Structures are given as structure tokens and as C-alpha cells.
């Protein structure tokens, strides 16, 4: 489908094939719901003064917190204005999204400060404050993600082209350090329901990435989750 968008400056152009497949955001949201459910438990389980364990867990907290920040930054930069311009009725929902992102950002700042203190001391009282801060992120985020899935994603699916939607994923991949890629990709693969995983893998990853996964990244991801969850990694789905 080809349609001309309203003449409002930046969007005054023809967008081909308006409408996009937004299913990847549900995978990403599943990872964050899982992360903020599991990370506080891991933090609370670190023995007092065990700096090695605090480093392993702290690195995972940093990765998930950073991933969430980057994910929200992408939506702030690439999604809200487009949705508001193309679907003015969505403005109220966008305002809610912006306010929720701001609140999550404040809570992440609190968690970041506590993380910096805890990972160098493994002090249990600080660890408890960090775990509670991560619980707070998870609670606020849970509400936000639910609203976003109900009020925003269906509008984006209608109003954005596939290329525009994919800018969100590109932003996420570009803003995280290269070393995080095996974990980022491994979590995405595990967050796809098992029966759909092989097909998702073939349909969504370019051949060079599939090869890199098989040769190198899968091993790194396995080492990461085995170190983090020695008794077995809790399922993402
Ligand atoms: Fe969001």
C-alpha cells in the first residue's frame, strides 16, 4: 500500500507499504519482564562480601538496565513524534508513555547508584536496597509495557512503515557494546516460544549473523547464563 502522509514538514513524503510487523517488541518486552523478575532474586542471593559473585550479578544488572535505557531512548527518538503526527488521537497515550519513561528513568538512576556501591562491596544492606530498586523498576515497567502493548503497538503497526519500525531495532543494536551482542541475541532467541524458535531464527536473522551465532556467540551466551544461573536458567516464556 502506498499513501501520502499529511503535509507536516518532516513527514511530507510518500511512505511505501505503511504498516509493519511489530511482533519483535513483544519478545523484547518479555526479556525485560523476565530480567526485573529474576535480577532482584539474584542480587539478594549474593553472600555477604562475595565480590566475585557480586561482579557476575552486577554485570548482568548493568546490561539489562542499560538495555532498557537504550530501548526507551529509541522509542523516545523514533516513535512518539511519528505517532502523534500521523494519529493525533494517539497523543494522550503518547503523553502517558513519556511520563512513564521519565519515571522508569528516575528509578534506573537510583538503581545505577546503588549498583556502583554494591558491586565493589557486596554489602547485603546495599544489596537489599538495590534489589528493592530493581523491584520498583519492574513494577513501574510492568504497567508501562502493558499500556504500550495495548495503546501504542497497534497504532504503530498501522501507521509506520517496516523500515521505520526497524529503526528501533537498529538503534538498540547500535547503542549497546559489541560484547553484549551474544547475550542480547541469546535472550531474544530464548524469548521466542520454543515451537516458533527455529522459524524465527531463520526468518529474522541474516545468514552471517546465524553463522556467527553458531560459531561463536552461542558459546558466549551459554557461558554467561551458566555463570549467572548455576542451577539452571529460568525460562523466558
Ligand atoms: Fe516504552
How would you describe this structure in keywords?
2 strands, two-stranded antiparallel sheet, Four Helix Bundle (Hemerythrin (Met), subunit A), 3% strand, 9 helices, 237 residues, globular, single chain, binds fe (ii) ion, disordered N terminus, mainly alpha, 2 domains
Give the helix/strand layout.
Layout: E1 2-4, E2 14-16, H1 23-44, H2 51-78, H3 80-86, H4 91-118, H5 124-159, H6 162-175, H7 181-191, H8 194-204, H9 207-228
Antiparallel strand pairs: 1-2
Helix pairs in contact: 1-2, 1-5, 2-4, 2-6, 4-5, 7-9
The structure holds fe (ii) ion (FE2).
The site of fe (ii) ion has 6 residues, from α2, α4 and α5.
Task: Tell me about this structure.
It is a single chain. This protein has 237 residues and is mostly helical. The chain folds into two domains: 160 residues, nmb1532 protein domain like (Four Helix Bundle (Hemerythrin (Met), subunit A)); 61 residues, no CATH class. The chain contains nine helices and two strands; from the N terminus they run ββααααααααα. Bound molecules: fe (ii) ion. The site of fe (ii) ion (FE2) has 6 residues, from helix 2, helix 4 and helix 5.
Overall mean pLDDT stands at: 92
- What is the count of DSSP helices, taking H or I runs of 4+ residues? 9
H and E string: EEHHHHHHHHH
Shape: globular
Q: What share of the residues lie within helices? A: over 70%
Secondary-structure-based class equals: mainly alpha
Domains, number: 2
Bound molecules: fe (ii) ion
CATH topology description of the largest domain = Four Helix Bundle (Hemerythrin (Met), subunit A)
CATH class of the largest domain: Mainly Alpha
CATH architectural arrangement of the largest domain: Up-down Bundle
Total beta strand runs: 2
Uncertain runs are 1-15
Amino acid at each position: 500500500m502506498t499513501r501520502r502522509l499529511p503535509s507536516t514538514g518532516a513527514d511530507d513524503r510518500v511512505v511505501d507499504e505503511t504498516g509493519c510487523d511489530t511482533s519483535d517488541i513483544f519478545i523484547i518486552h518479555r526479556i525485560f519482564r523476565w530480567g526485573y523478575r529474576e535480577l532482584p532474586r539474584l542480587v539478594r542471593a549474593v553472600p555477604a562480601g562475595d565480590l566475585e559473585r557480586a561482579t557476575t550479578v552486577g554485570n548482568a544488572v548493568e546490561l539489562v538496565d542499560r538495555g532498557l535505557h537504550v530501548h526507551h531512548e529509541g522509542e523516545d527518538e523514533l516513535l512518539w513524534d511519528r505517532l502523534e503526527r500521523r494519529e493525533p488521537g494517539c497523543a494522550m497515550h503518547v503523553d502517558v508513555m513519556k511520563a512513564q519513561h521519565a519515571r522508569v528513568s528516575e528509578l534506573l538512576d537510583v538503581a545505577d547508584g546503588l549498583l556502583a556501591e554494591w558491586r565493589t562491596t557486596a554489602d547485603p544492606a546495599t544489596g537489599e536496597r538495590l534489589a528493592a530498586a530493581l523491584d520498583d523498576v519492574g513494577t513501574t515497567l510492568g504497567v508501562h509495557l502493558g499500556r504500550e502493548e495495548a495503546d501504542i503497538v497497534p497504532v504503530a503497526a498501522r501507521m509506520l512503515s517496516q523500515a521505520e519500525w526497524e529503526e528501533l531495532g537498529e538503534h538498540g543494536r547500535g547503542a549497546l557494546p559489541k560484547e553484549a551482542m551474544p547475550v542480547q541475541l541469546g535472550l531474544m532467541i530464548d524469548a521466542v516460544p520454543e515451537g516458533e524458535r527455529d522459524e524465527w531464527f531463520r526468518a529474522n536473522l541474516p545468514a552471517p549473523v546465524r553463522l556467527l551465532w553458531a560459531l561463536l556467540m552461542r558459546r558466549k551466551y551459554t557461558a554467561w547464563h551458566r555463570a549467572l544461573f548455576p542451577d539452571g536458567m529460568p525460562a523466558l516464556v
